[in-house]
């Protein structure tokens, strides 16, 4: 299956699970698909045979489809765990039956896109790979992979226009109060007001403690002409979804 098919599957999952902010709650998403999630440590103490089977297949995570269980290695870093969980969900959503290199690549691509949808990366105006890692709570290597694919996504949009799945995502994340694409929703820690698309959990103005530090620009993936094309498309997306 091609990347556009997987991106459409990601979009359908995001909408079905009512995902409204990033980073996503991986455990909640798996619960919506009726998966029981447990750690390798829990599995080792409860069912040693099943535990040995899981670790023999993967040191990160394993999906036991007939039992609707996803087990993961709780000794791995949290960001890696998040990717592993969405990788296993990718196998489920994409209907994989066999353990093949192609299926593994497809599950990786699914995980990357549901954790950090490219259109969300675009509207977040992220400056560094570290910013991608921080906002979406993914590892540096996963953030770098997403940044590379983001470049491809930008080129596709510039050349062919907006895909239907991106239109659906734009409509899903468009917020009439904010009057734009919302990729982050927080509550101000001081006054309780809803904070949209801000790095820190407090609203600007009286609650702001300091200005956000300046950041060094990162991946300049677009030419000046391509930037103009995307800006024109962006203006259209606001009124045409």
Automatic annotation (TrEMBL):
Pfam families: Peptidase_M78 (PF06114). InterPro entries: IrrE_HExxH, Rad_response_metalloprotease. Residues 65-146 form the IrrE N-terminal-like domain. This is ImmA/IrrE family metallo-endopeptidase. It comes from Bariatricus massiliensis.
């Amino acid at each position: 299956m091609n990347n556009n098919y997987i991106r459409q599957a990601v979009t359908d999952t995001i909408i079905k699970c009512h995902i409204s902010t990033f980073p996503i709650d991986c455990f909640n998403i798996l619960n919506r698909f009726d998966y029981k999630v447990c750690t390798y440590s829990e599995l080792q103490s409860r069912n040693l045979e099943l535990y040995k089977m899981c670790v023999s297949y993967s040191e990160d995570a394993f999906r036991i489809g007939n039992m609707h269980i996803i087990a993961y290695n709780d000794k791995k870093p949290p960001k890696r765990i998040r990717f592993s969980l969405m990788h296993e969900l990718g196998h489920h959503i994409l209907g994989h039956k066999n353990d093949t290199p192609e299926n593994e690549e497809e599950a990786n691509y699914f995980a990357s896109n549901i954790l950090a949808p490219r259109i969300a990366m675009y509207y977040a105006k992220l400056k560094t790979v570290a910013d991608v890692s921080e906002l979406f709570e993914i590892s540096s290597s996963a953030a770098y992979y997403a940044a590379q694919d983001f470049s491809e996504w930008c080129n596709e949009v510039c050349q062919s226009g907006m895909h239907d799945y991106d239109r659906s995502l734009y409509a899903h994340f468009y917020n009439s109060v904010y009057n734009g694409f919302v990729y982050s929703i927080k509550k101000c820690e001081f006054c309780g007001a809803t904070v949209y698309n801000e790095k820190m959990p407090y609203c600007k103005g009286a609650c702001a403690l300091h200005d956000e530090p300046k950041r060094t620009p990162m991946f300049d993936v677009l030419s000046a002409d391509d930037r103009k094309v995307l800006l024109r498309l962006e203006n259209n997306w606001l009124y045409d979804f």
